[in-house]
Amino acid sequence: MRISVTEAKGQLTELVRRAEAGDEVALTRHGHATVMLVPVQRRPNATERRRAIVAIQAAVARKRTDGESADRSQDFLYDENGLPK
């Protein structure tokens, strides 16, 4: 929604509610959008960030499998001089 700054003065509470609900609210001056009202995204605190890191590390550890190293995975394509067979 687009609304002029002058009109928005009397409707600020309602415009903030709409922005919080996900509506795009653009404030205009002389017909040109100058400001957008958008909800603030909450940032995780240090404890929540640490929990997320631990969860990601655990997921990676579960996916890891022991097996052949990729270092030599395509040696069969090359001869002892490193040239293609």
Structure in a nutshell:
The protein has helices spanning about 5-10, 10-20, 45-65, and strands at about 1-5, 25-30, 30-35.
Helical/strand content category: alpha+beta
Q: Sheet with the most strands?
A: 3 strands, mixed
Question: pLDDT average, as an integer?
Answer: 88
The spatial strand order of the largest sheet comes to: 1-2-3
| Span of the ends, CA to CA | 66 Å
Q: Tell me how many strands there are.
A: 3
Point out poorly predicted stretches. Answer: none
Number of helices: 3
Order of helices and strands: EHHEEH
Helix share bin: 25-40%
Strand-residue proportion: 15-25%
Global geometry:
elongated
Rounded to an integer, what's the Rg over CA atoms? 28 Å
